[in-house]
Each structure stands twice: as C-alpha cells, then as structure tokens.
Design a protein that fits this description.
two-stranded antiparallel ribbon; 9-stranded antiparallel sheet; mainly beta; about 180 residues; about 0% helix
Length: about 180
Amino acid sequence: ARYNLAVDWGTLGLAAIGRQLHYENGTGNCDREFGFGGSIGGKFEVGKRDDLRFQATAGRGLGRYVALNYTNDAAVDADGKLDAIGQFAAFASYRHFWNETLRSSVNTSFFIGDNNADLTGGEVNKEAQSYSINLLFSPVSVLTVGAELTHARRVIEDGTDGSFQRLQFSARYDFGWTPD
C-alpha cells in the first residue's frame, strides 16, 4: 500500500508491505514467516529549483524489495524454520542548479542487514554505504552530459570489508519519443 501527498513545499510518500514467506524442502518439511516493512520518502523544494530528496525503509523479510536483494528475505535453521532477516536502508540527495544549463547532486545512502550469522554464515552482506557528487551540463534541452565521483563501502557478516572510488562519465540524448 502506498499513499502520496503533494503539497506546496514538495511531496511526501508513505508505503507499507506485508508478505508471506514460504519454505518447503521437498520432504514435507515446510514453514511460513510473515515479512513486513514500511517506508517514508519525499522531496522538499529548496528555493526556485533546488530540492532535497530522501527515503528510509525498514522491515523484516523484505529481500528483493530493498537494495536489489542485498540481503535475502530469510534464512532457514536446522529444523527447517524460517528466520526473517531485518533490514534498514536510507538515502538523501541534494540537487542544486548552478544556472539554467548546469546542475549538481550530492548523494548518500546506507544499508544495514540484521542477519543471523549462525544461519547465514559469514559471507553474506551486512552493510553498505555510498557517497557521490556529480556535475551535469545540458547545453540544449535534449542533451545532457556529465561526470560523477562515487565512493562506496561494503561489509560482509564476518567483518571483511572493501571499498572503491569511481569516476564515471555519461551522456543522454532525448529523442522526443513518448509512449502512446
């Protein structure tokens, strides 16, 4: 379920999900677990063109619905019982227009999974963070070129972590096609 609200200062959205997780091992052993979550997000307009965007999501057994299945929905214990995995994810982004053709965004996001390492093992995703800043130039309305610098970090359940920095370039041309 989702509710969207548009107001003078921007937008606000609230969402909730409930789902039934089901496990069957093929030998007649099965279990069910209820997955649930909630989310709040929105956009605050700052001045004439700038905006602040945000979203936070939390729940248990959300799996594919959060961070592209960064953690699974649930783990199965030795007795074939499901243990739903808790998750929390959030992001914030500030978009600033320098002038009519130049804009930037500063972005941050993070994710925390509450795995039961006794069931999942130590090689599953536990947390992630990312930070980025970009500069986009639109010399004409149908063309945008840009560059973005990103730093990201990942930690798995056994404590192993890694990070990277990336500089990427982009180009977008809008052909003007719209669906019927």
